[in-house]
Amino acid sequence: MDNVLIYDTTLRDGAQTEGISFSVKEKIKIAQMLDHLGVHYIEGGWPGANQKETEFFQKIKDYPLKKAKIVAFGSTRRAKHKVENDPSFLEILKAETQVVCIFGKSWDLHVHEALNISEDENLKLIQNSVAYLKSKGKEVIYDAEHFFDGYKANPEYALKTIVTAQNAGADTIVLCDTNGGLIPCNLEEPIKEALKIIKVSLGIHSHNDSAMAVANSIMAVQLGCRHVQGTINGYGERCGNADLCAVIPNLKLKMGIDCISDEQLKGLTEVSRFIAEMANLIPQPHKPYVGSSAFAHKAGVHVSGVQKNPKTYEHIQPELVGNERKILISELAGQSSILEKAKELKVDLAKDTPQMKKILAKVKEKEHEGYQFEAADASFELLIKKALGEYKPVFKLKKFEVIVENRNGELFSDAIIKIEINGQEKYIVAEGDGPVNALDTALRKALEDSYPILKKVHLTDYKVRVLDAKEGTAAKVRVLIESTDGKDSWGTVGVSENIIDASWQALVDSVEYIIGPIGHI
Predict the structure, then answer these.
(1) If DSSP codes are grouped into helix, strand and coil, which group holds residue 56?
(2) For residue range 339-386, what is the model confidence (pLDDT) as tens digits?
(3) The model's pTM
């Protein structure tokens, strides 16, 4: 099968996601990452829509890309303007991109009710706009907006709009499912009819309102489209766009289409998580291919099978997309799960030994109490060391006290801890933005002189889960903490009827993990 070109619209369609707003610097960093991934086109935005969009097109010129072409986006000319005087076109030309993508109406409903013009006049808009951009030496991609809805309502007219764009010189015609209501079984007829009359490259642009955007994109390629538009992580307004983090590996690994290289594919997970970070959104763990749980195994039978042959429970090797296998430890764990996890942690264990049985019993006991180790590898490693008698606490807690005061409507938190370290007692008082922050600060102050590495450590995530809401304020809570030293990250867990105590347990595990006798310093 011929190669397929990947067109990324994260910086425009993706930025329309509720809650996402990329700065110019972030957009440039994302463009560089996308170029490194190997996409062919990067839609930078709509020049002139706001100052940020205009500035991006000015500044991206200072960052030469290795492969990708930056694309300026816009619409066909407005009915009341000549194309050479249309403000939108003037801004597109100022962007000075080699490639321009414009959209026009394919659905007669929009022609009559949105534009309030005749069908023939709409065809003139398309013809004038594409021809003008071609006269300026641009590569023109024409997005046929609402094509599939338009084909359903009036197939003759929908097809006429794309032929008009082709005759005006468009290099690529993209069929858009703008409302996202299409399902794969309804793709075949309109695409086959389009292929009968379109001799330039045909593309697909799918939205995800029916949860079918990826499936529609793959089906479109199977039918003959050679240009696929989408966004990283499926970002986009409403329900999002076709997720390139699924489209790309499906094309390459399932259909044998070398849309990007093997080496570039290995960067897919990194790109997904980087752009999630830029968007200030938590990466979705269950995303296919790139999610942190995409290759996570919890049940003992699954773990045992994966140990013998990963194909038993994995559809691809996680390394192909830059991801990794995770063995989760839970009440479902068998010896295979613990053995595999121990191997990850470089702990020497064997099956059917007293030590193994002791660890397995301890895991099940702790999980029965409400502990959860799937996101708390550091706490699990400490549990193993304790069960094997290889763990010696770095310090001994004598007492801690937390005081929260309301002073004239303002809250103040103080923590007092008394610990014994290296045979000496330390008594520390610290303030914090809350009781947990105050405890964390006090513990660090007590230990930093002996363990300077703690100056680099900080919390990156703090989650509280009520385990039995029926118990009300007396319910047990589980606290999960993620910490980092700027290089590595680790998770710890604590459980108690008292949220401060549960937080303290997780904080202590975090500190013990990095400075204790486990070899992480």
Answers:
(1) helix
(2) 766 776 677 777 777 877 788 788 778 877 888 776 688 888 888 888
(3) 0.72
Whether 510 contacts 375, CB under 8 Å: no
With both helix axes pointing from N to C terminus, report the angle between 24-37 and 51-59 in degrees, rounded to the nearest 10.
Answer: 50
Sign of CA dihedral 250, 256, 258, 260: positive
DSSP secondary structure code for residue 40 in this structure: S
Cα–Cα distance between 504 and 472 in angstroms, integer?
21
Q: Answer yes or no: do 438 and 334 share one domain.
A: no
In a domain, 494, yes or no: no
Q: Can you tell me the distance from the alpha carbon of 275 to that of 281, in angstroms, rounded to the nearest whole number? A: 9
Alpha carbons 439 and 398: distance in angstroms, whole number: 14
Q: Whole-angstrom Cα distance, residue 247 to residue 260?
A: 12
Instruction: Indicate if 230 and 344 belong to the same structural domain.
Output: no
8 Å CB contact between 92 and 47: yes
pLDDT in tens, 55-69: 999 999 999 999 999
One domain, residues 113 and 50: yes
Q: Is residue 135, in this structure, part of any structural domain at all?
A: yes
Residue 416 confidence (pLDDT) above 80 = yes
Q: Tell me the mean pLDDT in the region 438-466.
A: 88
Distance of alpha carbon 229 from alpha carbon 30, whole angstroms: 16
One-character DSSP codes across 288-304: TTTSTTTTEE-SHHHHH
Residue 413, beta-bridge partner list: 404, 432
Per-residue pLDDT of 286-337, as tens digits, reads: 999 999 889 887 766 776 777 788 889 899 999 999 998 876 655 445 566 6
> At residue 470, does pLDDT exceed 80?
no
Q: What is the pLDDT of residue 333?
A: 54
Helices of type H across 258-353:
262-265, 268-278, 300-308, 335-344
Helices (H) and strands (E) in the chain, counts: 18, 16
Other CB atoms within 10 A of residue 483 CB: 24
The strand pair at 477-484 and 326-327 is best described as: unpaired
Residue 447 exposure: Cα atoms within 13 Å on the Cβ side: 27
Sign of CA dihedral 222, 228, 231, 237: negative
Number of domains in the chain: 3
Whether 379 and 441 share a structural domain: no
pLDDT reported for residue 473? 61
Structural domain harbouring 444: 395-450
- Interval 263-277 mean pLDDT: 92
